[in-house]
Prior knowledge:
By secondary structure, the chain is of the alpha+beta class. It folds into two domains: 5-108, no CATH class; 187-356, no CATH class. The protein has helices at residues 5-9, 14-19, 24-37, 44-57, 61-71, 76-93, 98-108, 138-149, 158-171, 220-227, 258-267, 307-312, 351-356, and strands spanning 119-122, 132-135, 187-191, 197-200, 208-211, 217-219, 236-240, 284-287, 302-305, 324-328, 331-335, 341-342. A three-stranded antiparallel sheet has the order 4-5-6. The chain has a three-stranded antiparallel sheet with strand order 10-11-12. β4 and β5 form a beta hairpin.
Amino acid sequence: MSGSVLDTLAGFDKQAALDAGIEPGKVRDWAKLYDVYVAPTTAHRQQARAVDLVRRGTFSLDQLALIERRLDAVGARERTRTRLDVLEELAAARPGSYQSFARMLKRLVPVEQVAPSDGASFSRSRMGKRTVTVTADERDIADLEHAVTRGIDPDRPAGPQLAANFVRIMRGDGSQAGVPCAAPQPLVLVPAPELAKVLNDEADPNEVRFGLTDGTTITGAEYLARYFSNPAYGVRVAVFHAEDGAVNLYRGERCANEKQRVLARAANPVCPVPDCRHGADSCEAHHIVAWKHGGETNMRNLAMLCRYHNRTNDDDTHRKRRGRIENVRGAPTWVSPRGYAVPNNYHPYGAMQTLFGR
Length: 358
């Protein structure tokens, strides 16, 4: 980890390190160090000089990784020269602890302070709680702080009182309207007739027809009206097939209609990428086979993805960088670049899991 770090990096393989269970952030750091100190380069003299300084300074991998993270803020043209200057200074000074090393590095490579951008982020649920973080104009945040601190009891912990005042203001304190409470709308999930085959309904492209094993056919509407539907219930009913999932409407328009969005949200209540916590209500309708590649706007080809994963999905099947969403037996599922299907168990209550146990 110190004197022989460059010998260790000589045999570095990123994928092998990931497969060995090494923390991905550390693997990325080591891959960057490999590119700087070991990988073939046209700047032979500069690389040899850097290697010599590393050996003289007996830096650890973590120290070298910290240097590279600090150099990210330096322009590409100046980075090599700055790296050599920093290594020479640190090799001569030999700071003891990692903290001393970091403090000296901070003086050697000052980074211009950049004002944070406005933004907001929301955490995943944890035991019924969530956290929101907001960055905005200091005057607006100061006004909010003043509002939530008014009237708190100084003899009691401030945190719970601030949270309670924030929620009260958010919901409306009587003088003005606040954020409305969500009103869940019930959706009855009904499995399609056993052994039925899903067919196109040529008379109505918005309908689905089942081919039954007795040789007859029946539309989804007829099936529900005969066996399940009752207007007095005041609920909506959705049919899911054990293999095809929810099926409706074939290629007619790019944007999913409201009926498709309801069924898609039932199929995956959260973005299907593993550990993503974004609920389907705030997600975008995604074409599993990209629209530009002829993908149809039907239920088998739709999934609800959060804004980020909808843009990082590998739409081109030959590009295997970030993984892609595929329809696995009726359920939108993330498939890794190496071909492994991994469900998102953050919210395991999608229609296919609820009805068919997967």
